[in-house]
Amino acid sequence: MQYIRDNCLKEEAEVSTHAVHQDELGEDKRLGGDERVEGMNTESNSIQEHTIYYDIRLPAFLPEGNERVRLILNLEIQLDDTPGYPIVKRGFYYCGRMISEQYGTVFVDKHYEKVEKVYSIWICPDPAKKRKNGIFKYHTIEDIIYGEPYTKEENYDLMEVVILNLGDADKSSDLAILDLLNVLFSTTITSEEKKQRLHNEFEIAMTVEFESEVQEMCNLSEALVEQGRAERNISIAQMMIKEREPVEKIERYTGYALEKLKEIANGIGMPLMME
User: Fold this and answer.
1) Is the pTM of this model over 0.85?
2) What is the pLDDT of residues 14-62, one digit of tens each?
3) Cβ atoms within 10 A of the Cβ of 172, count?
4) Tally of domains in the chain
5) 106-152 pLDDT, tens per residue?
6) Where are the alpha helices (H) located in 19-117, listed in sequence order?
7) Residue 13 to residues 4, 18, 70, 121, 162: CA-CA distances in angstroms?
């Protein structure tokens, strides 16, 4: 995470090495006084809005005098870089949720001075060719129409979206962070090969802690690739069912058994075409 921190965060922050994933959901906590939550949930619930699940969410800390100021980082791996909506808008939506849910966990009553800055960082391992190897940042700024500025940047610089479009692991991007991430998030390189290349090409010592983080990232990227394949297969099955293709053909294209296809057909309210 320190390499993402050094290139994506404007602040000199110390990032937690423990990334909290969806399978490590903790209990929600309410705060009184100045208590602080150190663990972070990856599930966001709201009565008025749908539940969202973060891939990774973890804290980072800024040395600020005698106390540490906390940031909240959300890291997402986005397999489809053209999902039908602008990724940056989804990033700002996640930022908004991470800020609003601080009420009752980071601050209570009207202590808005305690609101913590949030980052939503989106890694796209396989973007379109024209978008490969790019880093883009979007954040809130002060636009002075008239008069002298009177508030500190920390009071309005509260959310930032970062999009990292990766490229090929075997081609240099001329930017070290992208080359490193291209290796780390490659879906064609084994975890052992990644560790070896990170050590040889980037002189990264494979400590027990860093090796564990590399394995964690490998597991996450592999899981998301499988999830992406499953979602694509479901989309193909839905399309073929709507086009009244015979069930045997759909089975061949998707690899799904009849029971799974019946479930998908029921979900879209369409019958299967049985030969």
Assistant:
1) no
2) 555 444 443 333 333 333 333 333 345 555 555 456 677 777 788 888 7
3) 12
4) 1
5) 999 999 999 999 999 999 988 999 999 999 999 999 999 999 999 99
6) 87-100
7) 11, 15, 9, 15, 16
Across the strands, what pairs with 57? 20, 74
If DSSP codes are grouped into helix, strand and coil, which group holds residue 159? strand
Widest CA span in the chain: 76
Calpha distance 36→57 (Å, rounded): 16
Residue 81 lies in a domain: yes
Identity of the residue numbered 24: E
How confident is the model at residue 42, as a pLDDT? 56
Percentage of residues in the chain with pLDDT exceeding 70? 81
pLDDT at residue 16, rounded to an integer: 52
In a domain, 252, yes or no: no
CB 184 within 8 A of CB 169: no
Quote the pLDDT of residue 19. 45
Percentages of the chain per state (helix, strand, coil), in multiples of 5: 40, 20, 40
Three-class SS of residue 134? strand
> Which domain covers residue 132, as residue numbers?
2-186
Best CA proximity match to 98, nearest among 122, 73, 81: 73
- What lies within 8 Å, CB to CB, of 265 at 6+ separation is 241, 271, 272
Residue 208 inside a domain? The answer is no
- Using the structure block, give the residue that is written with the tokens 């599930």: 43
Q: How confident is the model at residue 247 (pLDDT cuts 50, 70, 90)?
A: very high
Question: Does residue 239 belong to any structural domain of this protein?
Answer: no
Q: What is the DSSP letter of 174?
A: S
List the one residue out of 84, 82, 81, 164 whose CA is nearest residue 120.
Answer: 164
Contact 42, 21 (CB under 8 A): yes
8 A C-beta contact, residue 81 and residue 127: yes
Amino acid at 253: Y
Q: What average pLDDT does the segment 186-211 reach? A: 84
